[in-house]
Amino acid sequence: MINMDKHQFKYAAKTVDCYFETPFSFLDELVDKAKTIIITDENIAKLYADKFDGWNMITIKAGEEHKQQFTADYVIGELINLKADKQSFIIGVGGGVVTDIAGYVASVYMRGTRFGFVPTTILAMVDAAIGGKNGVDAGVYKNLIGVIKHPEILLYDYSFLETLPKEEWINGFAEIIKHACIKDSGMFKMLEENTLETFQNDKEKMALLVKRNVLIKYNVVSNDEFENGDRKLLNFGHTIGHAIENIYALPHGNAVSIGMVVAGNISAAVNNFSSSENSRLSALLNKYHLPTTLPYDESGSEAVWNILIMDKKRSGDTMNFILLNKIGDGIVKPILLQQLKLFFNKDL
Ligand code: GLY
Question: Which residues are part of the catalytic machinery?
Answer without folding.
Answer: 111, 133, 175, 217, 227, 231, 235, 238, 242, 252
